[in-house]
Amino acid sequence: MKRRLLLVSNSTLHGGGYLDHCQQQITEFFGKDVRRVLFVPYALHDRDAYTKTARNKFQTLGYEVDSLHEAEDPVRAVRKAEGIFIGGGNTFRLLKSLYDSKVVMEIRKRVMEDGVPYMGSSAGTNVATISISTTNDMPIVYPPTFAAIGLVPFNINPHYLDHDSSSRHMGPSVLSPSTSTLITWTTTPAAATWGRPENRGSRSTTKKQTLQVCWV
């Protein structure tokens, strides 16, 4: 079964509204076969307000939104989902909540085996990878493990920025030679990290597997 992933670096660009910068990619990605999208608001503290923001946006695109935090049985909600969108926020809070809800493996199964389209933004992109080890977020809570959903066999840093030679920042960054700016999928994917510049688009395919990954 072909995996279908839309992985977005951020939800909002300066001067624009929520998901405005990638709404065309969203409609192309989910298409007409998906009518309802299961939204996962776990990365933010105020899940009700976050869900309202996502629901309002997706309704303008022609999709209804069900929120995982509103479901009586989160696992059953994932099993019924036509499409899944995990929003951004704090990656540690998000992954812990996914494990607390016992949906990590269920989401993986739906995407990997059933072909359910998966969209992630920022933290939602981080948890689609092998682990959250490349997140820039502060560990405000601790998940039981850093191992993530594993929809792609590499890690991603969704907030990579081009080097600024005029910067006086003296601390470590994701741009340092020790982490590399970009390492593509190799024969040892567990060691691979994909650092993708923000707000740039690309689609990636491999000879062995086809991944519809659009970076926006």
Put the structure in a nutshell.
This protein is an alpha/beta fold. It is built from six helices and nine strands.
Describe this structure in words.
It is a single chain. The chain is α/β, with parallel strands linked by helices. The chain has one domain: Rossmann fold, CATH 3.40.50.880. It has six helices and nine strands. The protein has helices at residues 23-30, 47-60, 74-80, 91-100, 104-112, 123-126; strands spanning 3-8, 36-40, 64-67, 84-86, 118-121, 155-160, 193-197, 203-205, 210-214. Strand 8 (203-205) and strand 9 (210-214) form a beta hairpin. The longest helix has 14 residues, at 47-60. Residues 169-196 and 199-216 have low confidence and may be disordered. Pfam families: Peptidase_S51. It comes from Oryzias latipes. GO terms for molecular function: serine-type peptidase activity. Keywords: Hydrolase, Protease, Serine protease.
Q: Given the helix and strand composition, which structural class is it?
A: alpha/beta
Number of domains: 1
Alpha-carbon Rg, integer? 17 Å
Order of helices and strands: EHEHEHEHHEHEEEE
**DSSP E strands, number:** 9
Distance between the termini: 24 Å
**Major pleated sheet:** 7 strands, mixed
Q: How much helix, percentage-wise, in residues?
A: 10-25%
CATH architecture grouping? 3-Layer(aba) Sandwich
The level 1 CATH classification is Alpha Beta
Q: Show unreliable segments.
A: 169-196, 199-216
CATH homologous superfamily heading = Class I glutamine amidotransferase (GATase) domain
Q: What does the average pLDDT come to?
A: 81
Strand arrangement, major sheet: 3-2-4-5-1-9-8
| Strand residues, percent | 15-25%
Please identify the oligomeric state: single chain
The tally of helices reads 6
Shape: globular
